[in-house]
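Section 3.1: Structural characterization of target chains.
Under the original work plan, the team committed to producing a structural model for every single-chain target entering the pipeline before any wet-lab resources were allocated. The record below documents one such target. The sequence was received from the expression subgroup and is listed exactly as submitted; it comprises 963 residues.
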Amino acid sequence: MFDDLREILKEFIHKIAYSRLFALMILFTCLFGVLGVHLFNLQIVQGEDMLNNYIQQTEQTVYTPGTRGNIYDKNGKILAYNELAYSVTIQDTGAYRSDADMNAMLLRLVQILEKHEVDVQGKFEIGLDENGEMIYTSYSETGRKGFLRDVYGKKYISELDEEWDKTLNKYAADVTARELFEKKKKSYKLDEIKDEKGNTVMLDDRTALSIVNIRYTMSLTSFQKYLPTTVAAYVDDETVAEVMENTADLQGVDIAESSVRVYNDSIYFAPIIGYTGKMQKERLEELQKSNPDYDINDTVGLIGIESSMELKLQGQKGYRVVNVDNRGRIREEKEKVDPVAGHDIYLTIDSDLQKGIYHLIEQQLAGILVTKLVPEDEPNTEHTDSTNLKIPIKDAYYQLINNNVLSLNEFEAEDASDVERQIQSTFEASREQILAQLRSELMSENAAIMKNLPKDMANYMVYIYSYLSSSSVGIIDESKIDTSSKAYLDWKADEISLRDYLHAGIADSWIDTTKLNAGSKYSSADDIYSQLVDFCLEELKYDTKFTKRIYRFLINDNIITGKQLCLALYDQGVLPEEPAQIALLRGNGEAYAYTFLLDKISKIQITPAQLALDPCSGGCVITDVNTGEVRALVTYPSYDNNRMSGTVDSAYFSKLQNDLSQPLYNNATQAQKAPGSTFKPITAIAGLEEGVIQPGETIRCTGIYQDVAQPIKCWIYPGAHGPLDVVGGLQNSCNSFVNEVAHRLSIDENGIYNTEKGLELLRKYAVMFGLDHDSGVEISERDPEISDIDPERSAMGQGTNSFTNIQLSRYVAALANQGTVFELSLLDKETDSDGNLVEDFTPEISSHVEIADSTWNAASMGMRGVIQNGSASKIFKDLPVHIAGKTGTAQESRARGNHAFFISYGPYENPEICVTVNIPYGYSSSNAATVAKHVYQLYYGYTSLDEILNTGALETSNVTIGD
């Protein structure tokens, strides 16, 4: 036996490389029997740390990031910088060897952080929204799938569609945030945490999620235990003090100095600057191609300038070469190199312009809403033109609920006001009644077909179907539905009840009964259907979207009133306390509530973004036409990137994602619409240059263009413009004029009409003005689309033409400077941290448009005519700066307002800047033109930023624009 033991010990000693002296001592004690063995065990226990430190030390390199560079505006005003802060970190020292011990320590830590209202940060990309629902906090769908790929240990995102999670009974790609959280919670044994008395601790979602987040994040660097994991960033002094007081119970937890990225004027600049955040795997692979020092723990720019200039801003890491023991503790420092600060970036943007234009857009949108909101329930008919649509005031009341201006949670809170309790009580009673009616209808053998249901019941039935077929529920598998079946065709035609359609789904196996926990696979169809109804109606009780649908009809039917909702704005702090106004609201009826809300919109106390009615967004770009530098790039609404950077505020992020005004969407670079009549100068230039029309030649407008299969009405129809030359055609924005030009462009050398020829020539000139590729700005934008159908309609900016504001800005800059097409830029210069110039950025020239001087003159005179003599002249008659411009209106839906555009440059005599404005669903281009007028006044000093900041809603123009 001792021989065997001796050989085992020899091998053990050799493997762990004990010192010779100590190895001989061990062998000696073992050979002297049981007593020696006991002595050996005692020696091992007492000398464990010494042996580990002596034997298992390894050399590691610990990196320290350089201070991130600052970002400034054109005039040197700081926009993004770093501020010293403290972070809570944790390192696995080996002190906690079981899940129970680790979880108990982490619970204590999380409780301290919660006490000080500090959020835990990490790489477990799941959070809680404002309603307490589990959500993914990934910045995009691709990001969500990348997170799931890492959780499931896959190499490619595509593998998630084939990875079957046996415990959740679904593919990994379809796992919900709640399901993944519960899975991790179980794997980390959080349900087994005990208190001091041995009782199981019941964790709420927030606490459990924080512990899961910490453990998951620590697991990502478990092979580098010497690297601490940041648990919470930017903690205050009180939090630091309490953590330090409890270090004996929080082994491995420490306080570290760090920095927080701070953004000034965040609302105005967030869509340009972007924000920083956790490194993603794909981003890491990309950055390491340029700089191999990047690692998965780095904070990097995620979007905007922070992302595009990442390699310049990041700086150079410092490092320490150290020896660490097997527990990750640093035992010796062998080499040290200090980090180098990143470079600073200066933008071409002027802060005052950026701020002023943001508020000008908001004020114009508010002015439009004030003129569009009416007290009638159904002010529009099927014949109402898209320019003249009105908005029922009840739509605005509903948006207070639908767009989360008012919190549903506060209606049912213990400290709810009397008005909030009234609203909640009315809602709860109505919900129970509606659910009972739904149950009755769904269970009735004589259920009404969809088209025979009352409007509200039909709406609820449609929602039930969409709920069951959603990816998060997945009970209805639409991919298995036979779209040629009678049941499907009847459903599409509203000729079947939801009850009968779902029965058909059970019979045809496109309803997944396994998700209903049916008691037996031999359950009858009626039993399965009954369980389906029970499941659905129970879930709908707590479904926020369904709740909002109920509110929609309660408001429509005056069961919940505008007066109540307006009073709730005060109760929830949306509006500041105003005793006199509250008294007036309480003492008057619905007529006063209507007047009250219009007044709050006029004063921008309730914003267009909050209401998210049409219109609620807009964009504006100012470009220096002689350099290609962008002076302002504004999108409304926006967001606070301070709450997105580093650690995502999950409730805030969820609110942004669910905000119907889409604050994360850049209306200057991503809102891609048909340009309407703003495209007509290109058509005129193409006609002149290709010789299908001469400068003095006229084309007669009869009000309707007949030389196509489907005649095209001019906007003046049933009137007519009569004969127009190129200048007149542009000045009057005549559809028939450009229709005829495009038609002539489509006639080949044999006199035969060829649509492809016309489209090819229109494309040729659109390409010449840069409309075939991105504008060049250093933030993301959507790719432009040049029309490939119907030359006559394409010539007037319709067809499949689709461009963003920034792309139109480059095109207009080339019109203004007569031919230079720039790759636009937001970057002015780069300096090192001491202010020394590293690079002076100059926009590249993409191409030059070579056309006749007479063609340039015709185009510019036509655009000047729009402002001087055309339908927009009344808007600009008092503008001291002479400009040239073109209005544009594009209809997307008869049920919503037209998109409004205005392109321009000035001064006309010696162009310096171009101004382009887009207002999605802005009804009339006169609204976009009005914004542009105020922009010129701001740029040239005829109004000040202070004056704009102290102004309410702008009056809308009564001018009818013909385009």
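The longest strand covers residues 78-90.
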